[in-house]
Design brief:
This protein is of the alpha/beta class. The protein has three domains: 9-85, Archaeosine Trna-guanine Transglycosylase, Chain: A, domain 4 (Roll), CATH 2.30.130.110; 128-257, Rossmann fold; 272-494, no CATH class. 29% of the residues lie in helices and 19% in strands. It has helices at residues 139-148, 151-154, 179-192, 212-218, 232-235, 238-257, 286-299, 317-320, 326-343, 357-361, 367-374, 407-416, 446-451, 462-465, 470-485, 491-494, and strands at 9-10, 18-21, 30-31, 36-37, 47-49, 58-61, 64-69, 78-79, 84-85, 112-117, 123-124, 128-133, 162-166, 197-204, 227-231, 262-265, 270-275, 303-306, 383-387, 397-401, 421-426, 439-443, 458-459. The strands form six sheets. It has a seven-stranded parallel β-sheet, with helices on both faces. Strands 1-2-5-8 form a four-stranded antiparallel β-sheet, with no helix packed on it. The chain has a four-stranded parallel β-sheet with strand order 13-12-14-15, sandwiched between helices. Helix 3 crosses helix 12 (407-416) and helix 7 packs across helix 15 (470-485). The longest helix has 20 residues, at 238-257. The termini are far apart.
Amino acid sequence: MSQPLHRPFLRLHPADNVLVARTDVPAGTAVPEERLVTSSDVAAGHKVAAAAIRRGEPIRKYAEVIGFAGADLAPGTWVHSHNVAFEEFERDPAIGRDFAPVALLPEAERATFQGIVRPDGRVGTRNYVGIVSTVNCSATVVRRIADWFTPERLAAYPGVDGVAAFSHPLGCAMEMTGEPMALLRRTLGGVARHPNLAAVLVVSLGCERNDLAGFCAAGRLVTGPTVRTFTMQESGGTRRTIEAGIAAVQEMLPAASRVARRTVPASHLTVGLQCGGSDAFSSVTANPALGAAVDLLVRHGGTAILSETPEIYGVEHTLTRRAASRAVGEALLERVRWWKHEYAAGRDVQINGRVSPGNDKGGLANIFEKSLGSAMKGGTGPLMAVYRYAEPVTSRGLVFMDTPGYDPVSSTGQIAGGANLIAFTTGRGSAFGSKPAPTLKLATNTPMYRRLEEDMDLDCGEILEGTCSIPEMGQRIFARLLATASGERTKSEALGMGDHEFLPWQIGVVG
């Protein structure tokens, strides 16, 4: 932020016809440099008209259209969802027009971290034993097994970060073929094979539609010392399966604990990008700062996964223009069309205009404005690939994965796809953690950071305060990503979060 700190409003782009309040601004506040006087109280993060805007004219923020004036707006008028009309309009995707290849740093200059190298060469950032349920009917069993392994009982295995249960409400009374089952199996399989797991135990009931044999075949899981399976109906029921599962994990722990971190290049880092509880400062501080960190990560050979398809709607052209190929650009547009015209058509969800009450209170008028900030997490580099939910991510650089905007569902897909770290920005103060990949929390504003300091890892509000620039904060975030990947615990890990945030996307018929 190069604008003087005493100014009550921020001008984000010369072409904008709205300004953003830096702090709460009372009615009657004169803004001489913009030649306006506020006509009502304006909350921090909310907008005022910077010039006269006639009814039906576009509202521009960061030079992008975020809606249309629902009435004639005089300079100084509070501009928000009550007078900003959400209307569809044409956006030229211009696929590949702005594509530029990444200027990778020479290998000798690339950053490193202390990772856990698995026998197949994949690199983990944490070392868990995982317990996966094939169906909701075995959810209690996998959780009881995991809960038995308290910190006191794991003290003898210092190389193990924990025993984590991955239960869910699916696996039966669903379509046996097609995308719903394929999606569930690739999600569970992706987690079971995740490089942050040293070993995995899979527990089934025995009569579910997501049958054990079919799941293991689809998930490419072969039983052995690091992959064990149990079927409750064959193991004697709930209590006996819990006892057998505990015994099996105890047998796995000695080998799992015998790991040593070693220096590996940052190219082994795959970061899932998330934002939740967004506010108007998300696009001013944390999201562009995370984008700057992503640009650094990509130059060092790493990978970042941008997701939440409903939260790039309206600005998808800013991504297609950077697409590495026409196929990549078309794949992104196809996912947006599916959401708009098939999955969410006619439903009262944010891709059709309305954001959550918290987003609205934080100054975001509609999904176009929210998407403007959300897409900034991906930085400025080329878009290299587009993936379906939970598909294995194999490309390097910035990629996109089709997920809902709901953070637990979205991050579950990213982790199943291979993310070994999650970077999560929040303006309102989302409380979130994840396993087996840890979450680093980035606050958009200092007041919230101070209120929720036990949950937040980094205060990006310093950008708004003028004590740190976006590039400098990007460097800080990149350094924290490397430190976290090397084993430094995040705030959410210290709070023990992540046990209940595993949530596969349920897209099919339940019957």
